[in-house]
Amino acid sequence: MRIKELSALAARQHGVFTLEHARLLEIREPGLAHLVDIGTIDRVHHGVLRFRAAPGSWRGDLLAACWAGGFRAVASHRSAAALWGLAGGRRQIAEITCPRWRRAQHEGIVVHESCALDPSDLTIVDEIPVTGPEFTLLGIAAVCSPSALEMALDRAENQRLVTPTSVRSMLARLARPGRPGIRALRALLDSRCPEGGVPESERETMLRQAFRAYGLPDPVMQHEIWHAGVRVGRVDAAYPEAHIAIEYDSYEHHGGRLALVKDSDRRTRLLACGWSPFTATDVELRAGCPILCSAIAELRRRAS
Prior knowledge:
- By secondary structure, the protein is of the alpha+beta class.
- It has helices at 2-11, 19-24, 29-37, 58-68, 77-84, 133-143, 146-158, 164-174, 182-191, 202-214, 251-254, 257-272, 282-287, 290-303; strands at residues 16-18, 41-45, 48-51, 74-75, 94-98, 109-113, 122-125, 128-131, 220-227, 230-239, 244-249, 276-281.
- The chain has three domains: 2-54, no CATH class; 60-191, no CATH class; 196-303, VSR Endonuclease (Endonuclease, Chain A, 3-Layer(aba) Sandwich).
- A four-stranded mixed β-sheet has the order 9-10-11-12, sandwiched between helices.
- A hairpin with a 2-residue loop joins strand 2 and strand 3 (48-51).
- The protein is elongated and about 80 Å long.
């Protein structure tokens, strides 16, 4: 009966459990050793086990890694980004942060040491202890590219996981010379225009990055266009002073006859209002949108 209770508990924890869980159910180590011998459970890490019948999952591996890390070990950096659904996330590795005096030494786990972890920086996602959104962004800044960091920050803001104020508050609390990620995350925040809006997808962030790389200023994202008191629509990006509207053309959301008719109708209405509509495809984004950027730069030059 106790084994059934332990199995039910493990099922709620992605198939894994610890020796302490077993002890609380009065299952001793000799009994667990017998279950290992007959193939009912497997040892994942020291003190961490898994029911063999439970399907393997990256969440189970990550939770096991956190438990292997000891007291206050939490998923962080790229693993935390994957849990929060942010750019830079990776499910192929188990990446954790734990206090410096409780460093984990386990094969297959990427370990970061930090004495800066405060209870306010930690939370639970899918039963897994993890750094909060702000601290996760700091981890992404430390190990990922500036492009991935910007995508992660945009999504975190768009999903209302963070605000610029909450991220700056964390930076002010944790900033010290040499702390990884602080400079990159602060520089990104300082470069953002509060009136510029927030992209709603990673592709829209890539669109803004392409314009910036070409030398264009950041466009206004998710811009509402009105004409004669009537709302014409909202576009992914815009240069309102030059009446330039840009949309990312996703095959997923813009495919099919009905979508084609709606897109054509809105493009016609934009033209009638004196706006110049442009479209960026996935292929163009991967190439950096040189033709699109050149056309926009010329229109802005004429408008000015």
